[in-house]
Each structure stands twice: as structure tokens, then as C-alpha cells.
Write the C-alpha cells for this entry.
Amino acid sequence: MATTHTREQRAQQTIRKIEKLAAETLAQIQASDNPTLQIPIRALSNVSWNEDRRLIELGDRRQSREFFNLNMAKKFMQTFLVAAACKELLKSGKTTSIRDLFYMTKHTIKGSRENTFDDQTESDPIIEDLEVTVDALREELHLFAAKRGSMVGPMTIVDAGDTINLARMGSGGWSIPSITENHVIQFKQCEAEYILLVEKEAVWHRLNEDKFWKKHKCILVTGNGQATRGVRRLLQRMHNELKIPLYVLVDNDPWGLYIFSVVKQGSISLAYESMRMAVPTARFLGLRTRDFKTFGLSDDVRIALEKEDENRARQMLSYPWFAAKHWQTEIKDMLKAGFKMEIEALSNKDISFVTDVYIPQKITKRDWLV
């Protein structure tokens, strides 16, 4: 278990990174240069697919953020405003939400009617810019996002010093926090044989009510849609530290495939965090287009693909991380069929069909994609 001393050391390391950024900028000013920050570009144009690691990785391209540039001056100011607020958090040993940080740094600039930030949609990207610029994760800046996600299973953990038995969490499960690093969450005892991540909270509740996790000895997790950074980090830690596989169950649509791909190899916008979040060996259980016939589902569960779905699917066909034959086939099958399905479509067979038949059969027959 990480000690208070260790946490303080981590905070001091991050403070030094922020101070180094400030010192470099001050040196530019003293040299009568235009103060300029070099911000790594977080976009598709600056990511690459590492075939060996099976991860999406951030490239080396950077964009300049200059103080003496009318189009950049405000973002330059915002970057240091956020950095200063994070430094104060680190010095005080406190953490806060990204929403709180927005309000902490929002004010009207003296002598003007201009606000430092007008909306959180301005401050959130600045936080991510600061992360990649000083090479410090959001959690290391003492920031967290809203909690989203639940977990239950035959496992005991320690959360901020409190021992929690995840097999005794009732109908709601344990609420997964935003910060899931090992100085906050430790794994004490685990009898699970695998992890099952379910996209939909409603499906998670069905599986939990049916005690799927107890019968099949698994850790049952939901990210309530796209898994948050905290959920993804926890999944990776459990997979790596407990040495158990991760299965993922999502809707049969391009967005479900995207949710799976983010868990498996990372995302474009957060490519700089792939190494500490992605699980390249994650197994895709479904839902799959061919499941419609395999499990004899009714025509009533089919939902016609919309133009947006089709465009998204075709875009995914061009991504190198979907270049493998089985993924090309999977996406093309969906486009050819012209329909999508939700996981809940399985309830058309029986309310517990997903619990009693679908998942057990998929795992037993090793009917998954990687």
C-alpha cells in the first residue's frame, strides 16, 4: 500500500514539472523572446498504430501556443491559470473535480469584460493540454471527473484505507471512483476467473440481480456507456495485476465497437494514456450481427442503421486498428445487414437469456474476437 510519504513525493514531482514549464517560459521573456508553449497535438493526424504493442500512440508533432498572438494569447493565459491552480492543489494535498477547477479559475479579467473561461468546454481541453505538456496525468494533477460505473464480484479491495467486500454491495454495486491508482485502490483478495465489462447499466443490473458474477466467478463491471478514464485504468490494473482475462459486451452498432476499441487499444484524443489504460488482449463477446441468426432473434429487435451509423462504420474500416480480417468482416457484415441491435434485444427471447444462455455459451465456445 502506498504511504502518505509516497503520495507526497508524487505531488512534489508534479509540482517540479509545472515549475519547470514556468521557468522555461520566464527564460523566454527574459531573453526578449515571444513566450511560446509547445503543445503535443491530440488529433488523428498525430497518432500512430503500434502493431507490436497493439496500442494507439501519440506522435511527436507539436503546435505552438504563443503569448504575442491574438489567436493564441487567451489559451496561453488559460494554460498557466490551470497550471497554477493545480500547483496549489498539489501543495495543499487536496483533490478537486474538473468542474470545480473551472469555477476556481473563472473570473473577469481586470480592466475588461473578458472572462478567463466562459464554459467548462474551454477548461477541459486545457487540462488535457497541460497533461501532455508536462507529462503528468490528470490524477497526478490532483483532478478527478464525475464518478460513473459500478462493480461487483468475489473480490475484496481497499479503497482509501477502507476494506470493501465487493460480493456484499447489494443491488447497486461499488461505485467506481475517478482516481483508481494503486495509492487509492488496492486489491486484497480475488476469487474471480475473469472480468466482464458491460456497456449498458440496465444489462449490468440484470446480470447482478441474476447473480451471474457469483455463479460464474467473475468481476462484473459497467461503465454506463463509454468507460471513464477511472474505469479503464481499473480494468487494466485488474487484468495485469490479477492475471485474469477481460471480456466486453456492447451493443451491435458502430458505437459499441468504438467503446470496445477504446478499452482494447486506447483512443485518439487520449493516445498519450494508452499505455496505462488499454487492454490489448480484451475479448469482444458481442453483440454481433451474426448473433441475430445464431440465437434465433426476432425481426422485431432489428433497428435500421442510420446514415450516421453507416458513415461511422465506414470510417472505422479505414482505421489501422480495425485492419485485421475479422474486424473488416464484422463491420462489413453490419453494413450489409443494414441493421443494428441493442444488448437488450436478447430479452426478446427471455429476460435472463443474456445471463443463462448468451454469455455462458459465448465464453464456453470461445466465440469472441480479439
